[in-house]
Amino acid sequence: MAPSIRSDERDPDEGAPPAVTRQDYRNAMARLGAAVTIVTTDGPGGRHGFTASAVCSVTDSPPTLLVCLNRGSSASAAIHANGVLCVNTLGGGHEHLSNLFGGRTPPAERFAAGEWKVSATGAPMLLDAVAAFDCRIVRSVEVGTHDVLFCEVVGLAQGGAREGLIYFSRRYHAVVGEPDA
Ligand SMILES: Cc1cc2nc3c(=O)[nH]c(=O)nc-3n(C[C@H](O)[C@H](O)[C@H](O)COP(=O)(O)O)c2cc1C
Questions:
Q1: What is the tens place of the pLDDT at every residue in 24-41?
Q2: Does the C-beta of 70 come closer than 6 Å to ligand 1?
């Protein structure tokens, strides 16, 4: 299990009405388009996975990305227990997978859709992912309702899909690129 750090930053105005409400923040974030991924895990904590758009690169030396994980989600315990995950980037036509892994369905039903192989870390890797990042979790930081997981990328797979999948304005949008760009 990766070391967990609790953010000690506190709002100096705690108690005062928030300058930005949760709903205003959510509405503004809906305008920030993001790639849609399915984050998977397997190991002693069991197989699980969830849809995530809060994924971004931290650095390429060592190759590291971060994933924001809601601590209240059903996948949280398994991800922490296993210490590994695979970020599977979705393409156009994968909306059904995003909805399945973003809903309240049990893990076995989630993995019944799509074709998966076992990655080097043991996490499920989607065969037709646009790109897949196989990771070891090296650090976890608690911020509010979420854990920010810092993940060292130990394996990669790149598919030939022409379309990526973006979530923008609470809708999916397929974006077209070159196959191996
Ligand atoms: C497009 C989309 C993006 C999401 N991004 C995230 C994310 O970055 N982090 C997260 O914790 N949950 C995210 N979610 C929500 C989780 O996928 C969802 O809460 C979880 O899979 C369902 O929780 P449950 O397994 O407890 O039912 C997203 C959902 C959707 C549909």
A1: 999 999 999 999 999 999
A2: yes
pLDDT digits (tens, 9 = 90+) for 85-143: 999 999 999 999 999 999 889 998 999 999 999 999 999 999 999 999 999 999 999 99
**Which ligand 1 atom sits closest to the C-alpha of 73?**
26
117: Cβ–Cβ under 8 A, 6 or more apart, which residues?
Answer: 124, 125, 127
- Domains (range + CATH), the chain: 33-176 (2.30.110.10)
Looking from the CA of 2 toward its CB, the CA atoms found within 13 Å total: 25
Residues in the chain, how many?
A: 181
